[in-house]
Each structure stands twice: as structure tokens, then as C-alpha cells.
Amino acid sequence: MSKLETLPDEILQEIFQYINAADLFYSFDQLNHHFTRLVRDVPLHIDFSRVTKSIYEQFCQLILSNSQIKRNVVSLRLSNGETFSNIKDFLLANPLDSFISLRSLSLLAIDDTDVKIISFILPSLSSLSHFSFTHNEQFGYNCFISRYGLANPQAMNFTWIFPLTNLRRLSTPYFYHTLTCVERTVNLTSVTISKCDVDQVLQLFAYAPLLKQLQIDRELKSEKKIEEFTTTAVNAVHLTKCIIYSCESSFKELEFLLKYTPNLRILSLKNGDNIDMINAIRWQELIEFSLKYLSSFQFVFSLDGGIDDLQAMLDIFSKFQGDFWHKQHRWYTNWQIEEYSASIYTIPYPGNDFYLHSPIDLLNSVLSNDTHIFDNVKTLSVEVDQNPRNLPYYFRNVRSLELNICPENNQPGLTYGTFLSSIVNVLNVTHLAIDRHCKVSQSGLIDVLKILPHVSSLRIVRNTFENIHTNAELCKLLKGLCIKKLDVYVSDYRQSYAPEKINIKTCQQFPNLEELNCECVIKIEDLLSLLRAYPKLSYLKIRHIGKSIVSWMVGEILDIHIDFEAIIY
């Protein structure tokens, strides 16, 4: 602490802005006069997820009694699923309009009660520049069926944000109401939405004429015919970047939409099971006539099901390797064609995750010797069981590795270590997941862990986990690793209601564990056994928790955050 105190106040204030406000005050408030003054003079970012109950209650009491601290709050993230208190209770005790400097607001898993509270307060947040929210499953379902004349809950109404002249970024699950009735425009420059229709995007262009970036995280589709689309559409002249992670519309519908984005420079999209979308000639015509400023075009087009005519598929894919693509734009592609699937993607591969279910043949690419083709991939799932010698690809930046196969059972002499180290930079892997279909033996698990020295997170099926203590070599290896996060899951849904067997010998193999996800804990004594077994544990998530434990936690002050999905018994 003495070294920290020697830093200039300007440096300390910059550092403090990266620390969650509740943790900041817990660590530095009342430590000495210097730090007590500093933490009261920096912009505060509040996020109660995974904060222990004692820290949560202590900080809530602090902001209730000190209006200056509340005035310093610039970012607030509330959730109905990750904190001890729900959004409604927090907002009733701390109205949003009392955070007069608030610039960023994120609300996770909201329900209809939260919406009623927010609807009155949101328009008064004049400094807000970023608003993001998600709904819980039941509320989202109610909003969905309301479109078919059924239950109609109080939904997010975008007229509420009209007074927010400083709002620039909006993130929403989907548009709950049609925007054709909108009479005013907003100054939004960035919109992220989970699901929407093509027609709704056209309405958005008129509603937010300054829009620069649009991101659709889950699904773009169309429930209308093109002739039924809005007649109020205008060119999104400021839109330069569009990302669509799952495009389920037809090419004709997407083409109609993109013609309203004349200044688009970056386009990234994924599309599955739509042969109509894989048409190089139509894409070339669209780009030449409507997207003249497009400089970056990234895509992944895939087809599942039987490939009846291999040569026809080759002809379709090869058209993406003509002069327009290679010489004029320097856009390169690679493709894979198998018996039951086919895909073509731009390279470097544009996605963060990749499913390696068959050998990759880079001979279809002019960049076959480029070892950086998969540099964007951070999550890799492996389902390949052939000998890896001379494989032409390399995943150098993978952080999360999931195994779905057992090469040791299929290739004599082929081990996990040999196979994985030939295609993955194992020194970068920090998370390992064993799929439930991958019946890995203890020797196979040892082989994997030996080549992954920096793994700190492990996801493993319960049956394998419970028998770890029976193998001395595996125990020694696990103790030598610094496993801080452990996710123990079941391979059968029916087993998810079977209480965990707390085996102290197995628990002792994870002395550094800080976070544990498990399936089912019913009795209080079992919970206490878990807490004793993992002395460094700070976060525990239980998918099914006993009713008696929930009642017991109400009266306890724990130095651990306990989260759960469902209460049983």
C-alpha cells in the first residue's frame, strides 16, 4: 500500500475508474484520509454482479447516506439475476433520477414491474448517453406472443427516449412496437439489437437519421413481403458499419435493405441454409451499384444437409475468387465441401468461434500459406479425429478450447497432446471444456492438461469430476495448475436434480478455486461443506438450490456471492 500511496493523485484517479465502485470503497474507503478523499472524488462505475452480500449492503447504505457519492456515479449496471437484490428494490431505494451524472445505464433480465418504474424515470436522465437492457425469459415470451393478439405486457416504449438528447448508444433485445408512428427523431449513432425484421431496420433509418453503426446479434429476418415494407424509409447516409451475426432473410430482402446504406464501408454477416445468398454475381452487382464505398466485406455462408451435386457447389463457390474479389478488392475466401455440409468464408476468418468438425483444406484459398487465417478465433471446438501431421492451419489466439472427440480411441498412437499442440498455440489457452459426448479417460485428461500450463478455468462432466481423486498423477497435475474457475455439469437432464456428492478428496485438488458452478445443492450442511472445502471461493452458482438454503441465506452475512437459477423442494 505504501508504494501505491506514492503515485500522483491523477494516476490513482485513473486507476480507480477501472475498479467497480462497491469494491473500490470496500478496499480503500476509511483506509486513510488520503484514500478516503480520493474515492469520493472520482467517477464511479457501479456493477453489483458477483459482489458479496456484505459488500453490497455496505455500499447501498453508503450511497443512501451520502449524496455526493451518488452524484459521482456515471455508470450503473443492475440485474435481476446476478445480485442479492432485484432491480425494483434497488430503484425504489435509489431512484434513477437521483443519479444526476449518470451517463451509462444497463438493466439485465428486466420484467414488467421494472418497466413500469423505468417508464416514469428514464426521460429525466438528461446526461444519459448509453442505455442497454435485456428482459427475463417470461417477459420476453409475453412480449413475443403479444404480437399475435395474446397477453400484452407493459413493454419498452421508444418514445420514452425522445427527451434524451445526449443518448447516442442503444442496446435492446428487439423492437417491441412499430416505429412508423414515430413523429420525432433521436440522435442515436449506434444501435445493437438481438432480433429484428428488415422492415424494422428501414423504420430505424428514418427514426435515427444520424446512425453510424448497426449490429444485429442474433437474427435478421423478414415477416413481410418487400412490397409491404415501410414507405417512410430514407437513406442511412451516415451508416458506415453493419454487422449481422445471423441473417435469415433472403438475398432479395437484404439487397433491398442495403440499397438504403450508400456510404457503408464495413459489412459483416453470417447466413445459414440459404443457397440464394451464396451468389457471387449478385453480390458483385449490389456492391458495384449500391455499395460503392464498401472496403471491408466479411461473411460466412454455410449449408447443412446432403450435398447432391459436388461440382455444382464448387462452381458456386469458385465465383467468389474472380478478379472483382481478388484483384479489385483483395477479398479472399476459403471453402469446405463435405457429404452433409458446405461452407465458404472470407479470410482471415471473421468469427470469434470456430467449430472444427473436419479437416480444413486451404488449397481452395490463394492464401493457403498464410498462418494468420484463424487469428480472430478465440473459442475453438474440436471434433476431428485424424492424424494431424502436416495440417495446414493454426489457431494461435485461442483462449477457450472445447473437446468433442476422443482421438485416443480412434487413432492408434494419437494422443491429445500430439493432436492439439499441432493446431493450437496451447500457451494461450486459459479455459478447457470437455463436452458431455467426449468420454475422456483420466489418462486422456492428463494428456490434455500437461500441454495447457495456463489453464485457469475448467468445465467438466460430474461423473469425471467425482472420480478425479482416484488418480494420483491427475491429482498432482491439478494441484500444480492454478484452476480458479470450475464448472461441474451433468450429461443427462434428469441428473441435474440429483444433489452433488461433496467429496473432500476431490475438492482438495483445487486449492485456488474462486468460482464454482454446480448443478444441485439441497441441504444447508452440504452447502457449508462446499464452503469449507474451497476456502478461497468468492462466487458460487447453483442451478438448482434447496428452499431451506434460500431461507437460511436471508439471515446470514456471507463473504461469498451465491447465485441460483431455480428453487426446488
Automatic annotation (TrEMBL):
<dbReference type="InterPro" id="IPR001810">
    <property type="entry name" value="F-box_dom"/>
</dbReference>
<dbReference type="InterPro" id="IPR032675">
    <property type="entry name" value="LRR_dom_sf"/>
</dbReference>
<protein>
    <recommendedName>
        <fullName>F-box domain-containing protein</fullName>
    </recommendedName>
</protein>
<dbReference type="InterPro" id="IPR036047">
    <property type="entry name" value="F-box-like_dom_sf"/>
</dbReference>
<feature type="domain" description="F-box">
    <location>
        <begin position="1"/>
        <end position="51"/>
    </location>
</feature>
